[in-house]
Amino acid sequence: MRLLKTSFQTSVILAILIFIYPITTISQVPDSKSPTIKIGLLIQDSSYTAAINGAELAVRIANREGGMNGRNFQLVTRSMEGPWGTGSKQAVDLIFEEKVWALLGVHDGRNAHLVEQAAAKSEVVFLSAWSGDPTLSQAFVPWFFNCVPNDNQQAESLISVIYNNRKFRKVTVIHSNDYDSKMMLNSFTKSAVKQGESDPLLLNYENYSERMENLTGKLREESTDCIVLFCQPSASLKTIKQIKKAGLNLPVYGSLNILNENELSAEQLQEFDNLLMIPSGEWQETGKLKFMKDYEKKYGKMPGLAASYSYDAVKIIIEAIKEAGSSDREKIQKSLETIIHKGITGFIQFDERGNRSGKFRIMITKDGLPLKWEKEIPR
Question: Residue 29: its pLDDT value, please?
Answer without folding.
Answer: 62
